[in-house]
Each structure stands twice: as C-alpha cells, then as structure tokens.
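Entries read chain and fold; for instance:
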Amino acid sequence: MMKREDNAVTLCFEQIWDLNEDGEWVCTAFWKTHCGSVWKVTWAHPEFGQIIATCSFDRTAAIWEESVSDLGHGIHRTWIKRAGLVDSRTSVMDIKFAPKIQGLQLATCSAGGVVSSIVLFYTRLFSLPSDHK
C-alpha cells in the first residue's frame, strides 16, 4: 500500500507527498487549488480511488481526482478538479468524506455554521472497481 500525505501550503496551493522505497518523502504534485487560504484537506476512502477534497477561505470546496497515465517515458500523475462547490456565504472551514459504507458523500461546514451534505454520483469520472458492492 502506498503511503501518502497532503500539505496545504500557504494561501492557495496543495502538495501531495509519497513515501519512496528509500523511506524518503517526495513531493509528487503541487498545484493551485483555491483563490484563498486552504483550511482543510481530506481524503476519500481508497476504495473510491485517489480522491481528495479541499475547502477554503474563498467560500468554496473542491473535489480532486488523481489521473495516472503512462506516456511511454514514465508514469505521469495529474490532479484534476472534478467538482467545485460554491454554496457558502462565508468561508468553508471544514470538510469530511463519509465512511465508505455510506458511499462517496461529502459534508462541508461554513464559518456561519451552515452544514451541507453532498452525495457524489458515480460517473465514468468517479468509477468504482467492478467488485464493489
């Protein structure tokens, strides 16, 4: 199993770190996620793939999925924004995926105390393994 960490670095950027075979952490992704400070990052259960959600001072939450391709000269990894959620009048302060038994669901909480629950439907973008029950 791959060990991974995330790090929302200053203002509006995200970093993904992977543990290599030598036991060293290597930054494998770095990208702009929001227009304001990122308050929190959370990972979906690995059963759903490599999916993270971020929330920010800019009043938005975003869902990101890792895309992996082999272009013949090495593996290329990119994080693609699958959804942007603009539903708050204040900063989105917290974000959390539901336990896997409840499927791919996400909850957000704004600084104004508003809690939202979002059910993410499976499309070809969010595909489940064929043995998923």
User: Anything to note?
Assistant: The longest strand covers residues 75-85.
